[in-house]
Write a structure and sequence with these properties.
Ribonucleotide Reductase, subunit A, 0% strand, binds fe (ii) ion, mainly alpha
């Protein structure tokens, strides 16, 4: 309740950063809602979550299209905003007390983890914007793109590390019986 009354402040209070942030965040909710439904093992709950996930996808498409147009109008500024959104991404629930522990539980349960964040959320949206193919960047846009590429490589390393740790945990639990 406290979290609901506190509201949500944008990490980067500029229009382009806000719109690029929600392009990723709406897709993140789509993936996590769908996986939450599947985790319930209840067909009705699964259908409910699938319906909500469908709406989240429409929200994502709207914001993604706006940013797509922004790339054509002002590529460098948009690229810098996208970099900021990916670099500082945090779900709206991050202010909830104990969110860090919950996020780990959510990741271990396969509902939302760094691998899904990278491969099913960030990369598909970046591909749609043709971020790594565009040829209309100036110096600042190019620099932001290079930073983003490094960030995505680092994210891959962290995702692999997380998967190793999760596999090790699953093996320990299985051995315990
Ligand atoms: Fe949404």
């Amino acid at each position: 309740m406290l979290h609901m009354t506190e509201g949500f402040s944008a990490i980067h209070p500029c229009v382009l950063a806000g719109l690029s942030y929600v392009s990723f965040q709406e897709l993140a909710t789509r993936v996590s809602h769908r996986n939450t439904g599947a985790a319930t093992g209840d067909p009705i709950a699964e259908q409910l979550f699938a319906r909500i996930a469908l709406d989240e996808n429409l929200h994502m498409i709207f914001y993604r299209n706006v940013i797509d147009a922004a790339f054509d109008i002002t590529p460098d500024q948009t690229m810098q905003a996208v970099l900021a959104s990916v670099r500082d991404f945090a779900m709206p629930g991050h202010g909830i007390e104990g969110f860090g522990r919950k996020a780990v539980e959510i990741a271990v349960a396969g509902i939302y983890d760094l691998r899904q964040h990278r491969d099913e959320v960030v990369m598909p949206v970046l591909r749609k914007w043709r971020v790594f193919e565009r040829e209309d960047f100036g110096a600042t846009g190019q620099q932001a793109r290079e930073e983003l590429a490094t960030l995505m490589t680092d994210m891959e390393t962290q995702a692999l590390r997380f998967e190793d740790r999760r596999d090790a945990l699953a093996a320990r639990l299985a051995a315990r019986g």
